[in-house]
């Protein structure tokens, strides 16, 4: 019994020592233990400038006199495991009412909001388009999980984000949010997470299929090309349907394409593919509206867009159009503008944003205005003119205005020409106008043969086949940089456009012109009435008649004898 008492006394003494040790250690760490006042910086990176960033607290830390105890869902929020919220739980919270939750938003104290809220950085300057112009938003938040929503944007659609603020041991362990008791013997620091804002910024890419337009480096430019009147052009639109979160209940997603007057849409050629699979129109997929001439609109059903939200929906639209005789020529493009309209605010189903892209289809003309008849600074070109064998201009009207020093030869009708391909097939016909100028319109770049088929009255036909070459250079955005018309390999006419910065508006056109003079030789003229020529013919004719009569009578006498 005495022995047992000694053992119990020893155990009690050891317990007292251990208790004193724990107390002692706790007191030494009192100044460093976690408290409810702890905060750490959170950064939400690469957000559209001008957006509103709001963090709602959905999980908070609980503390005791000993420091941090555990994480719990805040009042009004349902999360089965506060240390590991599921995506479904987060989307449900984002979709429901957030009233009553502690929140931190943009630093706009003047509006009565949290002066310690999110502060925006200066816009990024980056070669990466996904970062250029974007800003970072930072704020100091307490320990726990925060639901971050980005609203008030014009272009980007942002999904709800989850950011965690957590404690970490000085040895680097415990760097995830964990529940339960933590080792109070460690020294703790609060850490914020750096979050990259997950957004869907829809873009639209319009291109010409199998474009033959090329830039200065010989690289194909898919947004610009040239064709002849009557040719069909194939177009393609590529875009992505935004990946909307569950907070969106009704959305608008439309693709519209508007063609200029010179392009005639083939409504039967429109094909829509989603993720490389053809999708037929219908009430559950999309509808196509072609009621307006030169325009079509594809409207996706909201239920189709919101189904399988996490699946990326790559959309491709293809169709064809024909270049008609209404087409603009030279530097005036025949354009297509494709526009994507999409919802960007879950709280306002009518709020949308648009992005667009454009293609440029050109056709060329000889002897036509470079940049439209009514455009200031545009002028009618004179690549080919008719002259006589002495270089005198052949015109049709007596009141034609000419440059000083020019000589005018007046005729009653002009010369007629055919423009043929290299196989000899006739592509176009033309006739010199009142200024002796020849015009062809609606031409593709390439090689041609120019052949005169009828000479002006009083002139011989030109038997020479003239080589004509039209070549073009495009800017990277699809606009026409320059075009050159070469005739007979030596006479080169080049027209080069300068555009207003970052636009397709022409500022000026420079030209290098050496006009080609196609000569016609005059037919041999008959002498005028009463002139020496007439007399000679008359005398000669009389002499022949007298000689013939003399021979006749002489023959008669001889026969009579």
Automatic annotation (TrEMBL):
Which Gene3D superfamilies would you find in this protein's record?
2.60.40.740, Immunoglobulins
Domain Gram-positive cocci surface proteins LPxTG as annotated: residue spans: 526-561
Q: Which UniProt keywords apply?
A: Cell wall, Membrane, Peptidoglycan-anchor, Secreted, Signal, Transmembrane, Transmembrane helix
Which InterPro entries does its entry note?
Answer: Adhesion_dom_sf, Ig-like_fold, LPXTG_anchor, SpaA_PFL_dom_1, T6_Ig-like
Q: Membrane-spanning residues where?
A: 532-554
- Asked if the record carries the keyword Phosphoprotein, the reply is no
Q: Name one Pfam family in it.
A: T6_Ig_like
Q: Does the keyword Transmembrane helix apply?
A: yes
What is the annotated signal peptide range for this record?
A: 1-26
Superkingdom is Bacteria
Q: What is this protein called?
A: Trypsin-resistant surface T6 protein
